[in-house]
């Protein structure tokens, strides 16, 4: 099984690159994001590889990092998500952004991917929510709060404050982060109005 290829860029296709390794040209399918970051033809490149072996074909998928390849595998554990959709998601969101979106239940960010509708985005953030926090670089308190709001377990003032900020035009993840910080400052038992005021101050920083 091929796990990594190091060679010279020979040429590019719509969704693949031909990598010349010792005179052998390997066709490697990549996300649009990966293709954009690869060098010009004739220059050296290294790709982490995921090899798919089917009865009628062998297909190689290439990634700039092992972490990106790990996300490619993780995404395909979600019902209805195959290699094509996984590559499209990784073309839209960098691994860190994808991890943050899943940790914060940000379905809107995932559904920006061409070909990914609200239902598939919902499945991705739901089925991978326990795996994303390990990769995410967001405050664990924000992840916890986002989960509580999503599961309707958050205290009413907190949920109302987040809803108010969303109605003002802020994204759900931004609003959750601001209110998580506001809750820490105000302590338990803070009223909705106080949380909104402190949350807006956070967002203005």
TrEMBL record:
<dbReference type="InterPro" id="IPR012340">
    <property type="entry name" value="NA-bd_OB-fold"/>
</dbReference>
<protein>
    <recommendedName>
        <fullName>Holliday junction branch migration complex subunit RuvA</fullName>
    </recommendedName>
</protein>
<comment type="similarity">
    <text>Belongs to the RuvA family.</text>
</comment>
<dbReference type="GO" id="GO:0006310">
    <property type="term" value="P:DNA recombination"/>
</dbReference>
<dbReference type="GO" id="GO:0009379">
    <property type="term" value="C:Holliday junction helicase complex"/>
</dbReference>
<dbReference type="Pfam" id="PF14520">
    <property type="entry name" value="HHH_5"/>
</dbReference>
<keyword id="KW-0963">Cytoplasm</keyword>
<feature type="region of interest" description="Domain III">
    <location>
        <begin position="156"/>
        <end position="205"/>
    </location>
</feature>
<keyword id="KW-0234">DNA repair</keyword>
<comment type="function">
    <text>The RuvA-RuvB-RuvC complex processes Holliday junction (HJ) DNA during genetic recombination and DNA repair, while the RuvA-RuvB complex plays an important role in the rescue of blocked DNA replication forks via replication fork reversal (RFR). RuvA specifically binds to HJ cruciform DNA, conferring on it an open structure. The RuvB hexamer acts as an ATP-dependent pump, pulling dsDNA into and through the RuvAB complex. HJ branch migration allows RuvC to scan DNA until it finds its consensus sequence, where it cleaves and resolves the cruciform DNA.</text>
</comment>
<dbReference type="GO" id="GO:0006281">
    <property type="term" value="P:DNA repair"/>
</dbReference>
<dbReference type="Pfam" id="PF07499">
    <property type="entry name" value="RuvA_C"/>
</dbReference>
<dbReference type="GO" id="GO:0000400">
    <property type="term" value="F:four-way junction DNA binding"/>
</dbReference>
<feature type="region of interest" description="Domain I">
    <location>
        <begin position="1"/>
        <end position="64"/>
    </location>
</feature>
<dbReference type="GO" id="GO:0009378">
    <property type="term" value="F:four-way junction helicase activity"/>
</dbReference>
<dbReference type="InterPro" id="IPR010994">
    <property type="entry name" value="RuvA_2-like"/>
</dbReference>
<dbReference type="InterPro" id="IPR013849">
    <property type="entry name" value="DNA_helicase_Holl-junc_RuvA_I"/>
</dbReference>
<feature type="domain" description="DNA helicase Holliday junction RuvA type">
    <location>
        <begin position="1"/>
        <end position="62"/>
    </location>
</feature>
<dbReference type="GO" id="GO:0048476">
    <property type="term" value="C:Holliday junction resolvase complex"/>
</dbReference>
<dbReference type="Pfam" id="PF01330">
    <property type="entry name" value="RuvA_N"/>
</dbReference>
<keyword id="KW-0233">DNA recombination</keyword>
<dbReference type="GO" id="GO:0005524">
    <property type="term" value="F:ATP binding"/>
</dbReference>
<dbReference type="InterPro" id="IPR000085">
    <property type="entry name" value="RuvA"/>
</dbReference>
<keyword id="KW-0238">DNA-binding</keyword>
<comment type="subunit">
    <text>Homotetramer. Forms an RuvA(8)-RuvB(12)-Holliday junction (HJ) complex. HJ DNA is sandwiched between 2 RuvA tetramers; dsDNA enters through RuvA and exits via RuvB. An RuvB hexamer assembles on each DNA strand where it exits the tetramer. Each RuvB hexamer is contacted by two RuvA subunits (via domain III) on 2 adjacent RuvB subunits; this complex drives branch migration. In the full resolvosome a probable DNA-RuvA(4)-RuvB(12)-RuvC(2) complex forms which resolves the HJ.</text>
</comment>
<feature type="domain" description="Holliday junction DNA helicase RuvA C-terminal">
    <location>
        <begin position="158"/>
        <end position="203"/>
    </location>
</feature>
<dbReference type="GO" id="GO:0005737">
    <property type="term" value="C:cytoplasm"/>
</dbReference>
<keyword id="KW-0227">DNA damage</keyword>
<dbReference type="InterPro" id="IPR011114">
    <property type="entry name" value="RuvA_C"/>
</dbReference>
<dbReference type="InterPro" id="IPR036267">
    <property type="entry name" value="RuvA_C_sf"/>
</dbReference>
